Amino acid sequence: MEFIDLIKSTLIFRTIILFVFGLCIGSFLNVVIYRLPIMLNNIWKKECQEFLDENIVIEAEKFNLSYPSSHCPSCKAKVPFWSNIPIVGFLILCGKCYKCKAKISVRYLFIELLTGIVFACVGYVHNDLLLIGFSLVFFSILIALIFIDFDTYLLPDELTLPLVWIGLLTNLNGAISGSLKLAVFGAVVGYMSLWSIYWIFKLITGKEGMGYGDFKLLAAIGAFLGVTYLCNVLIVASLLGIVYTVYLRVCGKSQRGDAIPFGPFLGAGAIMTFFCGNYFINVFLLV
Ligand SMILES: [Zn+2]
Fold first, then answer.
1. Looking at the domain assignment, is residue 119 inside a domain?
2. What is the predicted pLDDT for the residue at 6?
3. Which domain holds residue 196?
4. Fewest beta carbons less than 10 Å away: which of 22, 42, 116, 167?
5. Ligand 1 center to residue 79 CA distance, Å?
6. Do 147 and 276 reside in the same domain of the chain?
């Protein structure tokens, strides 16, 4: 009880505890980001197999979040338990496999740190434990979606749909959006705005500008933040998307017509809006 009271009442204690907790969840998210798309792929292949009555090669029959245990992709050596300790494991290993010295992506470290910082910031701005709990679940799923979309161009229903419900549940009393009504409108407007843009673009050009996962992700963000913040999220997402596209073009890493995932920028826009409010839209209005 004392521990809970301490978390509720002491800002610095709450922030540090949530930072460390965020590092651990970030470590788990690294597993989800890598393994969930492979697991879904296997499920879809099995469904195709049953539907078409054909033999489709499934790489690993048994593959889930806990099996096989973590191993080096280069030499297949099992990752020692202590190396799973967030940040510390990476630093002790100097970012290399302990056996074959193959480089470990610095992105693992980045995702752990990002989750830790986001969790700490949630603890900094809120002290209601239920609200903190909902927000942490929301941001954990959001971070997983950002990187899954970045890697695979997929925003799985298995994550986007629960995110909509979590967004609405968080706002039963309007804790973040202001009222439940604003959260419900946020979900509807979030989905319909991108859906409309998708169909207008498709009717004019005959091409698909984005995926249905983007509509569901923005619906979830609208449910969580409320309809009044959606414009800000879209402005930040579009700006980041433009900067990233220009960067890829300048570096020669993409060509005209290449697809670029929109989910990571929607996610980044949601995180920035949660902490900064309508800051960006206000800057636009002033300009
Ligand atoms: Zn290795």
1. yes
2. 83
3. 130-287
4. 42
5. 9
6. yes
What backbone phi and psi angles, to 5 degrees, belong to 71?
A: -145, 165
- On whether residue 227 sits in a domain, the answer given is yes
Q: Residue 110: count other Cβ atoms within 10 Å of its Cβ.
A: 13
Q: How far is ligand 1, taken at its centre, from the CA of residue 171, in Å?
A: 46
Ligand 1 centroid, distance to 104 Cα (angstroms): 9
CA of residue 83 to ligand 1 center, whole Å: 13
**Type of residue at 163:** L
Q: What share of the chain is helix, strand, coil (3-state, %, to 5)?
A: 70, 0, 30
Q: What is the pLDDT of residues 109-163, one digit of tens each?
A: 999 999 999 999 999 999 899 999 999 999 999 999 999 999 999 999 999 999 9
Answer yes or no: is 147 within a domain: yes
Spacing, Cα 90 to ligand 1 middle (Å): 14
d(CA 69, ligand 1 centre) in Å: 14
Q: Rounded CA gap, 196 and 214, in Å?
A: 12
Same domain as 98, residue 192: no
Evaluate whether residue 178 is within a structural domain: yes
| pTM value surpassing 0.85 | yes
Helix (H) or strand (E) holding 142: helix 129-152
Ligand 1 center to 148 CA (angstroms): 24
pLDDT at 1: 63
Pair (270, 242) in one structural domain? yes
